[in-house]
Design goal:
The protein is α/β, with parallel strands linked by helices and 307 residues long. The protein is built from 10 helices and 11 strands. It binds NADPH dihydro-nicotinamide-adenine-dinucleotide phosphate.
């Protein structure tokens, strides 16, 4: 744990960094061990990553995902499809991958070009290969508290960082800023499952600063650079910043004004090096989980007396 004393002038408040890089390294080491066992069992875990078009940000994300797969001995299947590909051709590719036993996880990098219906694409991925956890079956399982689905990587990564640093969740008054299907909503479900009292804020929320002052756990996922100011936070709050924005003058910043928030918070994620590294770590974690489940299903099917 990298602990940074930042409490100057704030009485007893001493802030520690929630180190996403270190947490991701631990998760990746566990994934590497599982990937090796799968390799030795003759069923290497395989992740198919589909990119449609050449959006520069997507290209960076996709490259990183493929690189981490290779680092951890997962097989990476790369599909770089043209921006003007017909929707039906993309769906056909996904169906092929659904049927391919060497592919355990399928990820379609978002956003997609406008002529392609994202919902239809997400719905076409077989739920047992949906390692992003976006398919309605997996969203439903998460909502119902069933362990057999896949949890979206970013909110799962947030919980993992908190656990890694020994930050309790139970009983906290959590405010999540953002209600997207990929971050805010699943984050709310996960924190509720861990016995936090959860409020979800969004663009129509009245008086966000006042609401945040009541929170001892804040998860910022609004997609708005440095929206959340230090003066909006309760002293000692735990602050998790999911936002990532590239600015011309300040480099990468989050949804939280870090230099103001750090002296107030008890724990805070940096940007970069906070939630970002966790998203890929949880993706490969979900992929080895998918491969392990597939291997168990094959073994069950080949055991006499079982189907
Ligand atoms: P979306 O744009 O899909 O959702 C943003 C949410 O924030 C919406 O619910 C919106 O409300 C709400 N919101 C926007 N402005 C305000 C405001 N001023 N006050 C309160 N609520 C507000 O974003 P995502 O959930 O996809 O991503 C959020 C951020 O996280 C982005 O910066 C993104 O880049 C980053 N991200 C980072 C990842 C990582 O690996 N670190 C992974 C995924 C995302 P409404 O619903 O009313 O419009």
């Amino acid at each position: 744990v990298i602990a940074a004393a930042r409490g100057q002038g704030k009485g007893s408040v001493v802030t520690s960094l929630l180190d996403g890089k270190a947490t991701a390294a631990v998760v990746k080491a566990q994934v590497a061990a599982q990937a090796l066992s799968l390799l030795q069992a003759g069923q290497p875990a395989g992740l198919a990553v589909i990119q449609v078009g050449t959006d520069p940000a997507s290209t960076v994300y996709v490259r990183n995902k493929r690189r981490v797969c290779e680092e951890l001995q997962l097989r990476s299947f790369a599909f770089d499809l043209p921006a003007d590909i017909e929707e039906s051709a993309l769906l056909h590719k996904i169906e092929e991958l659904n049927a391919d036993p060497s592919v355990h996880g399928i990820l379609v990098q978002l956003p997609l070009p406008r002529h392609i219906r994202t919902e239809l694409v997400v719905d076409t991925i077989a739920p047992h290969k949906d390692v992003d956890g976006f398919h309605p079956v997996n969203a439903g399982k998460l909502a119902l508290g069933r362990a057999s689905g896949f949890v979206p990587c970013t909110p799962a990564g947030v919980v993992r960082i908190l656990d890694h640093h020994g930050v309790s969740i139970s009983g906290r008054r959590a405010v999540i800023v953002g209600r997207s299907n990929i971050v805010g909503k699943p984050m709310a479900t996960l924190l509720l499952q861990r016995d936090a009292t959860v409020t979800v804020a969004h663009s129509k929320t009245r008086d966000l600063p006042e609401l945040l002052r009541s929170a001892d756990l804040v998860v910022a996922a609004a997609g708005s650079p440095e929206l959340i100011r230090g003066a909006w936070l309760q002293p000692d709050a735990v602050v998790v910043d999911v936002g990532i924005h590239r600015t011309a003058d300040r480099g990468l910043v989050g949804d939280v004004a870090f230099s103001e928030a750090a002296p107030v918070a008890s724990w805070i994620t940096p940007v970069p090096g906070g939630v970002g590294p966790m998203t890929i770590a949880m993706l490969v974690n979900n992929t080895v989980l998918a491969a392990t489940r597939a291997l168990s299903a094959t073994q069950r099917a080949s055991t006499p007396g079982e189907a």
